[in-house]
Specification:
Layout lengths: L3 H5 L13 H8 L11 H10 L2 H15 L3 E4 L4 E2 L3 H7 L7 H15 L1 E7 L8 E5 L4 E5 L5 E8 L2 E6 L7 E5 L12 H4 L1 H19 L7 E4 L10 H14 L16 E4 L10 H16 L17 H32 L4 E4 L8 H12 L6 H7 L48
Antiparallel strand pairs: 1-2, 1-11, 3-4, 3-8, 5-6, 6-7, 9-10
Length: 430
């Protein structure tokens, strides 16, 4: 071509692979702009975690159980007992240990559907420290291809930008599945938002009943002298003020009431249908527990006897809720650390040390151990263990030539000792 000489000095850009839908997602979300979460994490946390006992206990129960699981680090050939990454995970930063770090990470993941982990150090080396960042302060910045180009962390109007360069991210973003959001995850507390509102409203209703001696105080009927059943505005305000100051609240329980002429007291009570709020509260509590995946029996909610006993409920809790969460989070962290250090490692929970799964573990080990048609490496692979190290051949030594048999030699006869004569001796002085 005529214009080929113009292209000879141009730099050849490497071909990159990307999803065909990435530019479409970027066009909708906006290139270079922050993609905010559609839900207010701060409000949901205040209402569903700090202001609701069922949501608080469910998050704490899952986060503490998941953080208490022991973790193992291995590659395809061996399981490490000592490794630089294990030291960082055991003591991620001066203020937190392994359990505290992962408890905070799991709690943020459950409350917002997103978990953010920061690595302190240079790319290509083992990180010096690991820190959990609050999900409500983090915002993702998508690029032209739909993938994140940066993360912005905002605190009191100040922002810090974590740039993602060449696919190297100092932030490990772990998100739950969200059917209508491309950048953020869906938290269980968002799905349980309606049940949380019902449960909180029932609690406020119970508090109001306690403030009024747990029953409606009744009705005051006014009958005028002329048969007029209406009160003037001043009379109504004075009566209402006296009722609020002298006859309502826990401190005024049991105080007698003095009524003037024309006033009559009619006590009232609850019908059985009015007392159904307690069952409504328990039903809302079960819905909250269901959204988080915690058996209601473990939260002390009555009326749900799905499991035969507490042990079965605890086993189902670990198998259906805790383990999937831990495997998802540790797999993402292990892949992220592998890319950072350049060493292919895998981080996962050690299921052999979970007391709640001891019965299932014993049955699995016995079943696999009795399979004679499987090799030892196949059995170890089914149990999630690395293969055995191959036996190294012994070094071959060079064969030395055979030595000739030792022949005994007869002792030679001793010669008689001859004394020197005086003639043969040298003369002194010569």
């Amino acid at each position: 071509m005529v214009f080929d000489f113009l292209k000879r000095g141009a730099e050849v850009m490497p071909e990159t692979k990307a999803s065909a839908t990435g530019p479409v997602v970027a066009a909708v979300s906006g290139v270079g702009r922050v993609a905010w979460s559609p839900r207010d994490t701060v409000s949901l946390t205040r209402v569903g975690f700090t202001g609701n006992p069922v949501g608080f206990r469910a998050v704490k129960l899952i986060a503490e159980a998941a953080a208490a699981l022991p973790l193992v680090l291995q590659n395809r050939s061996e399981r490490f007992e000592e490794h630089p990454l294990l030291k960082v995970i055991t003591r991620p930063n001066p203020a937190q240990g392994r359990a505290e770090l992962f408890e905070a990470l799991y709690a943020h993941f459950l409350l917002s559907g997103n978990g953010y982990l920061e690595a302190v150090g240079e790319w290509g080396q083992v990180p010096q420290e690991l820190h959990v960042l609050r999900s409500d302060r983090m915002a993702l910045v998508p690029g032209a291809d739909g993938w994140p180009v940066a993360y912005e962390y905002s605190v009191s109007g100040r922002k810090h930008r974590f740039a993602v360069t060449e696919g190297h991210s100092p932030i490990c973003h772990i998100k739950a599945f969200h059917p209508s959001d491309d950048h953020y995850g869906l938290s269980p507390i968002q799905a349980a938002a309606t049940a949380i509102d019902v449960h909180n409203a029932a609690s406020r209703w119970s508090k109001s009943l306690l403030d009024n001696a747990a029953r409606p105080s009744g009705a005051i009927v006014y009958k005028g002298a002329d048969g007029n059943a209406s009160m003037s505005a001043d009379q109504y305000d004075r009566l209402l003020s006296e009722m609020e100051s002298h006859h309502q609240g826990a401190r005024n329980a049991g105080r007698p009431m003095l009524l003037e002429g024309g006033l009559d007291w009619k006590p009232m009570g609850f019908s059985p249908s009015d007392m159904e709020f307690q069952k409504t509260k328990e039903a809302a509590g079960r819905e909250i527990a269901l959204a988080f995946g915690v058996p209601p029996m473990l939260l002390g909610i009555p009326g749900d006897m799905t499991y035969a006993n507490y042990q079965e409920a605890n086993r189902a809790f670990y198998r259906l809720t805790v383990l999937p969460l831990v495997q998802k989070v540790t797999a993402a962290i292990g892949h992220w650390l592998s890319e950072m250090t350049g060493e292919a490692v895998e981080l996962k929970p050690d299921l052999d040390q979970v007391p709640a799964l001891s019965t299932e573990r014993d049955a699995q080990w016995n079943r696999i151990a009795s399979a004679d048609f499987l090799t030892d490496d196949e059995k170890r692979a089914m149990l999630g263990l690395p293969p055995l190290m191959p036996d190294l051949p012994e070094p071959e030594c060079e064969e030395l030539p055979e030595e000739a048999p030792f022949e005994e030699v007869e002792d030679e006869p001793e010669l008689p000792f001859e004394e020197e004569s005086s003639e043969d001796a040298p003369e002194e002085g010569n």
